[in-house]
Amino acid sequence: MTDSSPSMQKPLPRGRGATLNPAGRFEKLDVIPEPDPDGWPDEDFDGKPGQVSTSVFIDRSRSVIVRNDSPDVGFETSLNPYRGCEHGCIYCFARPTHEYLGLSAGLDFETKIFAKTDAPALLRKELAAASWRPQAIIMSGVTDCYQPLERTLQLTRGCLSVLAECRNPVAIITKNALVTRDADYLGELARFNAVAVNISVTTLDGTLARRMEPRASRPELRLRAIKTLSQAGIPVNVMIGPVLPGLTDHEIPRILESAADAGAMTAGYVMLRLPYGVKDLFQDWLSIHYPDRKDKVLNRVREMRNGKLNDSTFGSRMRGKGVHADQIAEIFHLYRRKYGLDRQRPPLSIHHFRRPCRDGQMELF
């Protein structure tokens, strides 16, 4: 008996997280390509089966600072230089944002990237406005500001140069060791207690990481990034984001120990969230890569999410609830204390902020 599911009829996309590219939830029509009559797999322009190239589009947004009023995310303002993320993390809660562009939360999210090429200039303009109230800005509140495209476009680096010049506090969340490239600007901000870097480490298993986060840095490179930044005097937090119950939760103690050895100051975690189409992509991914664990993982998620695969209720969506959620929380807090990652870090400072002026001079806040 053969499996006739779409994902098993053709080669998996190479170097990608999603195995599917379903139509967005707002689309009324979907395109289903006819299979090759001779039975050959899909091929791209290079003739390499399963390869899906990345396309980059210019995003002409008129502003870059986004305001948020959710009570459980811990910040009010964020900045995302990119829409979509080439890291391709299969569990990414941001995937459905591509559906607002008429695209798919699947392969489109990780292969069709929108770059805000004016981000540094727009940021300078917004920080110079009299209406700007100095406060911490989160970079990568949605998609990773250090995804592979940043190596060439350097939009994040451009924004950091503005933030360092203005001494406006910033917190960064990333899965990419590329963050160490900007140790100069991060170090300058650290002098004024105006920066915090959060390195996300979801697993220490290289095989699992390759399948789950195919274009993010390998786990050992993320740990090396923690060490590099810490030695440069830049405060680093390790974020286990997300914990995947039944798949990675057993790694919490080792991740915390490894991060502490690398020099991390504090630690945090969030629980797996599967909003909208992410739940279908994740289930298909499990069927292909971990069929023996699929039921266990999904049942654990349902147990934590009121019998569903997602529960967006404020107050519990970041942690889940129930027996397994409580066990994970207890293990995390136990080992966080054991490895000295439960220190209280002072809030980022706004006291050294300098507003940029049109004539190129700086105005003290």
Salient structural properties:
three-stranded mixed β-sheet; 30% helix; 365 residues; alpha/beta
Can you characterise this structure?
The chain has 365 residues and is of the alpha/beta class. It has helices at residues 107-111, 119-128, 150-153, 155-166, 183-190, 206-212, 219-231, 252-262, 278-289, 294-304, 323-338; strands at residues 55-58, 65-67, 77-79, 82-83, 112-115, 137-139, 170-174, 195-200, 236-243, 266-271, 354-356, 362-364. The strands form three sheets. Strands 2-3-6-7-8-9-10 form a seven-stranded mixed β-sheet, covered by helices on one side. Helix 8 links the parallel strand 9 (236-243) and strand 10. Helix 8 runs parallel beside helix 11 (323-338). Mean pLDDT is 89; it is low at 1-9 and 36-47.
